[in-house]
Amino acid sequence: MFPQRPQRRLNAQAAAEFATTFGDCFSTNAAVREQHGTDESPYPVCMPDAVVFAQCTEDVVRAVRLCQRWNVPLVPFGVGSSMEGHILPIEGGVTLDLSRMNRIVAVNAEDFTVTVQPGVRRQQLNEEIRHTGLFFPIDPGADASIGGMASTRASGTNAVRYGTMRENVVSLKVVTADGDVVRTSSRARKSSAGYDLTRLFVGSEGTLGIIVEVTVRVYPLPEALSAAVCNFSSLQDAVTSVIEIMQAGVPVARVEFMDDRAVRAVNRYSQMSLRETPLLLFEFHGSPSAVAEHAQLAQEITRGNGGMDFEWAEQPEERTRLWTARHKGYFAGLQMRPGARSVSTDVCVPISRLADCVAETVSDLEAMPFPFKVVGHVGDGNFHVQMLLDANSQSEWDQSEAVNRRLVLRAIQMDGTCTGEHGVGIHKMEFLKEEHGEEALTLMRKIKHALDPGNIFNPGKIVSWD
Amino acid sequence: MFPQRPQRRLNAQAAAEFATTFGDCFSTNAAVREQHGTDESPYPVCMPDAVVFAQCTEDVVRAVRLCQRWNVPLVPFGVGSSMEGHILPIEGGVTLDLSRMNRIVAVNAEDFTVTVQPGVRRQQLNEEIRHTGLFFPIDPGADASIGGMASTRASGTNAVRYGTMRENVVSLKVVTADGDVVRTSSRARKSSAGYDLTRLFVGSEGTLGIIVEVTVRVYPLPEALSAAVCNFSSLQDAVTSVIEIMQAGVPVARVEFMDDRAVRAVNRYSQMSLRETPLLLFEFHGSPSAVAEHAQLAQEITRGNGGMDFEWAEQPEERTRLWTARHKGYFAGLQMRPGARSVSTDVCVPISRLADCVAETVSDLEAMPFPFKVVGHVGDGNFHVQMLLDANSQSEWDQSEAVNRRLVLRAIQMDGTCTGEHGVGIHKMEFLKEEHGEEALTLMRKIKHALDPGNIFNPGKIVSWD
User: Which member of A111, A166, A197 has the closest CB to residue B351?
Assistant: First the structure.
């Protein structure tokens, strides 16, 4: 399923030294290893040789030093919600579980920053800061860890208004290959003081160092908030509406596309009664008058494109129900074919090409023997396809891989990217050359070699060693 | 004035090869070299051995290859508006003037992106795209080149609303040390496809490669726009107002602070009649009702902090006059002491520390024998000090250096940065260790060594070679 890689296993002597160092926080138990060898990707389990549960930065430093000493890979692990095999230790070695480093370190409400340990999850973060009147908007659906979200440059439904982890990580603390603890930036909102180490580590998927602290931007909870559903008779009308709304400068907080298949799945899974056509799910944030104004503008534009009347979810409970249903879209998808193997993929294109890209992809998928659905953070030009395969069918897997390849090449051809938010992991590695060119990969490889000369950190991901 | 550095001069044989390659676009003329050895920093002229005027990417590739072959430094040059000595060829070598690469390559209005050659200036860009209803908001005051702005991670008055070059560069084309042409990213609004090469080159001040193309984000021209001046009796009241406005989530487009000295200088230089107290200069963008609402909220908050009534600049001409005066603040400062040597410095701190940082700095400056003024992009926690020194006085220079050092250390102590937007150049290099720590500088140095192993690109800037 994934390429055979040279293995660097933890031998008995090394394991003994890990055990001495970490005591109870070191495990070679098969169930623990299996859990840490599983993510939300279509790949089979790939177990590490052992798992270390880090409790503090010093533990991470110790783990890095031991891995250097014994020349074994170290793979960071948060929640295991990655979609493309990021956390699978395909070259053997030790998984470093950071979920116990789950403390909020500092809330600097006046500065709109919060500093957390990497194992803090996004829902926990929002619960713990709610009393300040602030919130952390990045919302990839899964209740991912903040460290993991930084590592994959995650985004989600709010990104059209608030940006992605790229824009919202202020500073990181990372443990380097030398076992040094480096802070990548101050808490100043902006800086021109040297290379942007923060952005270099954001999205590096654990291949350059281990993130042990993350400072993120937070925002005032909007004074008013409203959500609405708008149905369309065609996908093109929905997407065209989004393009026009963006061009009109309407600052929507969220605008999500679901195709009729996705709506059906969500209705079934979450007992909703959404009209089963392609639809857009809007949310507007701001003052009451701004929210009203933006919603009205959006409605005028959707009407001009054959959209039906907005159905409002004004009450907080209705809104929560709607967004919860949207967020459970992945699980709703799984129920489209119980027992199936789910393959999710995402691409992102310049918004002018979005309608074409979605339409061509749907037409390609309609020729397949397996069910699928399409959802998208369409304000960003980003959409997802979930394919539900017969777990035992090699031919369905091959066909889904071929669809995925055509989708990615289509997106790249349209000056887009092979992944808008899921990340590279293993599954998208082969496309980076097509997207960036060999010379850009050479630069990435030089950076990897310079910062991780022993190839300890999550080897075999993003860019091949040679 | 600047540290003595080992020189790698262009010898006669190398110069002959450059001359053969570039013909008229190669110059060793003293006046040309002097112009390219001068920026807006307090440093004396530092002439390159020669200047190449690039007309196209292939010229840049040729220049890089020749510099590698002859082991001479290559220093990129846009307009020469850098403040900290960025473009001074302190280790000798060739200056690569990119100002003739000044074509708009593509306007993708639907996608809100514009692709330009690096020598395009920001005012030219805005003039050339005005008919599309879009604008490029980054505005550092100087009519800088877009390539230079990307290289210093520039920002300016609009950054509080629209971000800096960090957020607004979508993609770059760069020529690497190998003479390869690399595109750092697609035009997708977001991507998780590998290391963020774009952000690595943004702010790298020409030390990692030569930028030959920049794709930036552009925005719909706001439907409505209003500007206002608000006077205060104290600096603290003004800054406190800004903090509260930010905390209330009011999306101001610009909020600029000027101390009474700056106001006096601007009044004299631009024949304005602003009340000569500390003041804030606001601008609001949005729909007419949003602009009215935001302005009203801001006014309530300033009133609560002893601010006088807003004085509105409703008409486009008034607004332009006000902002032009603000943008000429640097030149107005020069007139505070004609013939003086101007030293400008900027720091950025978390906004909760801004009032303290400005107050302590002003108190320090008041003990100095030379005039000064303070202005700031205070919504970001960023402010500038301009000191006007007797050009012949070593003691005033020493005192200004000491003030600058205390200012920078104060900002770093407050978890801020030694430069919010001017960049490192030569003048801030010594502070990077204090700000980032030796281990972070080691990472930066590893990146420099990996991407520029011959130390050809703008050597002696940002981080020392060893």
Answer: A111
Question: Is B462 in CB contact (< 8 Å) with chain A?
Answer: yes
User: Is the CB of A449 less than 8 angstroms away from the CB of B449?
Assistant: no
Tell me how far CA of residue B281 lies from CA of B32, B137, B304, in angstroms. 39, 17, 17
- Preferred mutation among B81, B181, B195 to probe A, highest tally of A CBs within 10 A: B195
Please check whether the domain covering A336-424 is classified as CATH 3.40.50.11930. Answer: no
Report how far apart, in Å, the C-alpha atoms of B116 and of each of B33, B99, B102 are.
26, 12, 7
* Cβ–Cβ gap A444/B222 under 8 Å: no
| Ranges in chain A, pLDDT < 50 | none
Q: How far is A16 from chain B (nearest CA, A)?
A: 30
Residues of A in contact with B203 (CB under 8 A): 192, 194-196
Q: What angle do CA A411, A416, A420 make, to 5 degrees?
A: 95
> How far out from the chain centre does Cα B152 lie?
6
Paired sense of beta strands A94-97 and A74-77, if any: parallel
Cβ contacts of A453 on chain B, cutoff 8 Å: none
Measured between beta carbons, the chain B residues lying within 8 angstroms of A284 are none
CB-based contact B442 A186, cutoff 8 Å: no
CATH number at A104-220 = 3.30.465.10
CB contact, 8 Å: A392 with chain B?
no
The first and second tokens of residue A368, run together, are 């397949």
Q: In whole angstroms, what is the distance from residue A123 CA to residue B234 CA? A: 42
pLDDT for residue B343: 95
State the smallest CA–CA distance between residue A390 and chain B in angstroms.
28
**CATH number attached to the domain at A224-328:** 3.30.70.2190
Distance CA B383, CA B203 (A): 19
Asked if B417 lies within 8 A of A191 by C-beta distance, the reply is: yes
Under CATH, which architecture does the B224-330 domain have? 2-Layer Sandwich (3.30)
Q: Over the stretch A199-208, which tens digit does the pLDDT of each residue have?
A: 999 999 999 9
Name the pTM for this structure.
0.97
Euclidean distance between CA atoms A448 and B195, whole angstroms: 9
**Is A12-100 a domain of CATH 3.30.460.10?**
no
Which residues of chain A from 137 to 176 reach within 8 Å of chain B, CB to CB?
152-155, 159, 163-164, 166-167, 176
Q: Verify whether the Cβ–Cβ distance B196 to A166 is below 8 Å.
A: yes
Could you state, in order of their start, the residue ranges of all structural domains in chain B? Answer: 12-100, 104-220, 224-330, 336-435
Q: Which of B182, B191, B249 is nearest residue A440 as measured by Cβ atoms? A: B182
* Pairing of β A134-135 and β A219-220: antiparallel
Instruction: State whether A192 and B153 contact (CB < 8 Å).
Output: yes
Q: What is the pLDDT along chain B (466 residues), one digit of tens a residue?
A: 667 889 999 999 999 999 999 999 999 999 999 999 999 999 999 999 999 999 999 999 999 999 999 999 999 999 999 999 999 999 999 999 999 999 999 999 999 999 999 999 999 999 999 999 999 999 998 999 999 999 999 999 999 999 999 999 999 999 999 999 999 999 999 999 999 999 999 999 999 999 999 999 999 999 899 999 999 999 899 989 998 998 888 989 999 999 999 999 999 999 999 999 999 999 999 989 889 999 999 999 999 999 999 999 878 899 999 999 998 999 999 999 999 999 999 999 999 999 999 999 999 999 999 999 999 999 999 999 999 999 999 999 999 999 999 999 999 999 999 999 999 999 999 999 999 999 999 999 999 999 999 999 999 999 999 9
Interchain proximity A451–B451, CB inside 8 Å: no
Contacts of A442 in chain B (CB under 8 A): 178, 180
The CB density around residue B287, as the number of other CB atoms within 10 Å, is: 18
CATH topology of domain B336-435: Alpha-Beta Plaits (3.30.70)
Residue of B192, B202, B348 lying closest to A420 (CB–CB):
B192
CA distance B139 to B219: 14
Does this chain's domain A12-100 share its CATH topology with A224-328? no
